[in-house]
Amino acid sequence: MLVIAKYSIFAVSKNVSFTFAKMLTLQSFTFNPFSENTYILYGAQGKAFLIDPGCAIHSEQVKLRDFIKEKGLTVEKILLTHAHIDHVFGLQWACDTFALPVHLHPNEQEVLERNPLDARLFGFDFPEFDGDYVFVDEHTILHLEDTPITLRFVPGHSPGSVAFYIESQHKIISGDALFRRSIGRTDLYKGDYDQLLHSIRTQLLSLPDATEVHSGHGAPTTIGEEKRLNPFLQIQ
Q1: How many domains does the chain have?
Q2: Which residues form the Metallo-beta-lactamase domain (predicted)?
Q3: Conformation bin of residue 180: beta by default, left when phi > 0, alpha when psi is -120 to 50
Q4: Dihedral of the CA atoms 21, 219, 198, 118 (nearest 10)?
Q5: Taking the CA atoms of the chain, what radius of gyration do you get in angstroms?
Q6: Which pLDDT value is given to residue 236?
Q7: 121 pLDDT band (50/70/90 cuts)?
Q8: SS3 letters across 87-151
Q9: What is the sign, positive or negative, of the torsion defined by CA atoms of 9, 109, 133, 199?
Q10: Which of 37, 152, 160, 215 has minimal CB crowding within 10 Å?
């Protein structure tokens, strides 16, 4: 059984559950002024992956920490779909709290390290990341308890974007590559519109239509819906 739940500091929405052969739970939190989706993926044995920790302020960090504590979870890995600032507001806190390195594509290290500069462009300060890296790419296979998770390389929104595909559960965590009825912006550092469209078409739209897409912002969707209804994907 895979349970999809929405946990937002801005709004309350209903939990939705889906039953499968094995049980994983995907819990989403909506954090920070950019309304970024942070995910915790966990199994029946209490092992968990924390994906894109965007908790920007103490109260958001407390919500995330309390959820993990209440569920009795052990965070085994911290993963990034990409390293834009809205997805890493809570990265230093998470790495320090759980004594873990961050897993990211090597092309994202530069993006992560330039966040203090990008923050100044938005008018605020952001500290340099002080932690360890573990590099992953499209050849990496992660395991959460008994469930394999493969990586899809989807550059374009950022140079090292990856999506986490749970094939047995028909779910993909897409970061900011693909949204419900939209796609990621490409006007940021090393963004590339043509590359993004190529990534989406070859790495995401090639998945079964029933695959659920859980994005870095906004509501979930499916591959089939986006093939039919996403205006950016109707352009040849």
Answers
A1: 1
A2: 35-217
A3: beta
A4: -120
A5: 17
A6: 58
A7: confident
A8: HCCCHHHHHHHHCCCEEECHHHHHHHHCHHHHHHHHCCCCCCCCCCEEECCCCCEEEECCEEEEE
A9: positive
A10: 152
With vertex at residue 6, the alpha carbon angle to CA 211 and CA 135, rounded to the nearest 5 degrees, is 60
Query: Residues 17, 51: contact at Cβ < 8 Å?
Result: no
Reading the block at residue 14, the tokens are 């209903």
Q: Determine the pLDDT at residue 23.
A: 81
Please report the pLDDT score of residue 6 as a whole number: 38
Separation between Cα atoms, residue 75 and residue 27, nearest integer Å: 13
Angle at the Cα of 183 (from 56 to 228), degrees rounded to 5? 135
Alpha-carbon distance of 151 to 195, in angstroms, equals 17
CA dist 73 and 59 (Å) reads 19
Contact 175, 154 (CB under 8 A): yes
> For residue 221, what is the domain's CATH number?
3.60.15.10
Residues belonging to the chain: 236
Residue 163, strand partner residues? 152
Q: Is 34 exposed, middle or buried (0-12, 13-18, 19+ CB in 10 A)?
A: middle
Which pair of tokens denotes residue 98? 């759980």
